[in-house]
């Protein structure tokens, strides 16, 4: 059975989006070449990226135009992968999903992703998309969290875990980086 992973960048005070601009502007401080290289390991089993509407529009806007002459080797590798792989965007408001190899899912998440988990393949990964993560949590669909904690405090925004969340996690892997970021991988107990 496939698993569903939430892959998040999070502030030390628990927020995954500032709610300003792209919502992730605070990640630049600790996003080093060391962390970028390790991100390949974090994502090596991902074969189906999933986005909520806001994250999809940001990712599509950036990655669909990559790689370019200024792209690093890490950016080039990710751009080639994300532009070629099948993707899903979950939204009730988007009219279409124009990024190549993207399917728009509007309906019952439990039914559609329950079916996807039963199909052969690698890991289904929700990238950022905190509101979508909250919906998946409510439905009991998330099997694992892969979180990069950044050494910043922003004081508000969208938290990774909504109020009332109550479940146990088992640590699978951790690593710290010279930039001060820390990677934590937890499975839902």
Automatic annotation (TrEMBL):
Residues 2-182 form the Bacterial bifunctional deaminase-reductase C-terminal domain. PANTHER family: 2,5-DIAMINO-6-RIBOSYLAMINO-4(3H)-PYRIMIDINONE 5'-PHOSPHATE REDUCTASE (PTHR38011:SF11), DIHYDROFOLATE REDUCTASE FAMILY PROTEIN (AFU_ORTHOLOGUE AFUA_8G06820) (PTHR38011). This is Dihydrofolate reductase family protein. It comes from Microbacterium rhizosphaerae. The lineage of its organism: Bacteria, Bacillati, Actinomycetota, Actinomycetes, Micrococcales.
